[in-house]
Amino acid sequence: MTRFAISVLLVLPGAGWIAHLAPRDIDTPITVRLAEWKVELGAASVPAGTVTFRITNAGTIPHAFEVEGRGIEKETPVVQPGGSTSLTVELTPGRYEVYCPVGEGAHKKMGMLAHLEVTGGTRRNGTTPADAPKEPAQSKPPRALSITGGGPVVQILPGPFPFADSAAAVIRARPVDQQADLTHKEQEGPYSNRVARIAGAMSIEAWDLGPTRDSVAGTAKFKTQDGANWRVVIDRVQTKDIPFNPRFGGVIMGLFYHGASGLHTPLVPTIQSAVALWAYAHVYRNDSLVTDTAMVHVMLLSRTRRDGDFALQCWDCSKKPVEELQLQVTPSPGQPPFDAPGGFLFVNWERSRARPA
């Protein structure tokens, strides 16, 4: 917003006099387009003052819009796909984050973040930008973790998803091709209550350094229900987009997703993860190489399974302790299934821990 005064000489019939029009405010509009997974602004900078964001959700899932910086933190309600809304705020000079706050920051972590520069001199209260309060320093989350599997080790076998009713509404909101895939996994998928107690160990280090610099290294060894000994050597990140879920790949720290979050498959309870990563691995069965291009997904996540029978215990597990280390290993596209139930490997360490690497 720019605030200024205009002096105009008004000559009225029979009397000449000078009138000063009062200062007025200019409301600066800026368009915002939300989609998976980006925030597109109609302008990279605006003058200080009143700014109205005109927001459209051009994506396929619900989003929202938030402005944060210099003591300001305001957001819109959730906007459904195809919907629109607006947000008017008073902005002083400085740099602001604008992002989607849906999913406790998950959408923001997936790339729905942009920055807005607000320019100008005198602020409404008469202070200059140099007088403005400084933003408090933000503590940075760890960008590298060393993770060790611990506690009971269980193999998850294919079977029906226990929370099919809860997931049904989320599945219905997906495109038709996704609905078919999810419905199949709902009936005979990798998140079931068919669990076998086994033995094994796993350790992995993960670095979240950006889309082209992420790195992983680790090994898992375990004996499955059928007595086979498996070794999974993880040494390369997988950064290609996951089908139906673009921007999943590499290493992501602190992601809230799955379940009803709108991120990735709903056929997992809603969880909070310390780390989620996608990688390639060499896989050995009874010391014989099976493949060196296996696809691996690892999460250190909030506990989803209960003690005793290790059945899934909640549809929203995001408030549970983050201590469940989950390893999923599948063949690459076009490769034969593994010699294991369902053709995949799915192993959990239920009392795991992480420390900065």
How far apart lie the N and C ends?
46 Å
- Low-pLDDT parts are 1-24, 122-132, 135-139
Structural class: mainly beta
Range of strand content: over 45%
Gross morphology is: elongated
Number of helices: 3
Task: Please give the number of β-strands.
Answer: 23
How would you characterize the largest beta sheet?
8 strands, antiparallel, barrel
Which features does this protein show?
357 residues; mainly beta; 3 helices; 23 strands; elongated; disordered N terminus
Describe this structure in words.
It is a single chain. This protein is mainly beta and 357 residues long. 7% of the residues lie in helices and 46% in strands. It is built from three helices and 23 strands. The chain has helices at 106-109, 164-172, 176-187; strands at residues 4-12, 15-24, 28-35, 38-41, 45-47, 49-57, 66-69, 72-75, 84-91, 94-99, 113-119, 144-148, 153-156, 195-207, 215-223, 229-237, 251-253, 256-257, 271-285, 288-302, 322-330, 345-349, 353-356. The longest helix is centred in the middle third of the chain and has 12 residues, at 176-187. The two termini are 46 Å apart.
